[in-house]
Amino acid sequence: MRLREWLETFRFLHEKARAGRLALAEVAAYHELREEFAALLLAAQCLTVAPGQTARGALRAVRLLPLELLLPSGSVRSETLDLSAGGFSTFVPVALPAGELVGFALALSSGELRGQARVVNVSDEGTAWRISFQLLGVSSADSERMETEVLDTALQHFEFFASRTEGR
Predict the structure, then answer these.
(1) What's the predicted TM-score (pTM) here?
(2) If we measure between CA atoms, which residue out of 61, 60, 56, 67 comes closest to residue 115?
(3) pLDDT, tens digit, 9 for 90 and up, residues 53-81
(4) CA distance linking residue 3 with residue 74, whole number of Å
(5) What are the structural domains of the chain?
(6) What are the C-alpha distances in Å from 107 to residues 41, 69, 127, 145?
């Protein structure tokens, strides 16, 4: 199967899954295709998957989404820089210690996601701190929502690139 056909098949099944209309016979094929898509993008980025992790779990996508962090010093509004199925990163005006727990409200395209996250990485960017957060205690349904948001974003980026190189 050619890449364009494969991508069209994946997009078709992904849209059906987002709408909750996947037939039982299509579920296994969809799960296999989304893992292959994530693995393809990770390979293109020269990234590896940690033992026990799926490619879908490791995949990150650049996505600006409205975010509210509930810090000990008060509420901070920001935007995500990137997303994965298990977390996000953002800029904040203050450093947070690794391991600190914060509340958050994240505006996904499927609706707001509220919960707790742990600071896993802190980087001084000069005028702000780039902080990566790991989601904690997320339901499987909310984890699926995060993963869908990442796959939606990756598909948009991939299709933009494919449309730019078409006919070359």
Answers:
(1) 0.80
(2) 67
(3) 888 777 888 899 999 999 988 999 999 99
(4) 48
(5) 3-59+142-165 (no CATH), 60-139 (2.40.10.220)
(6) 25, 12, 25, 11
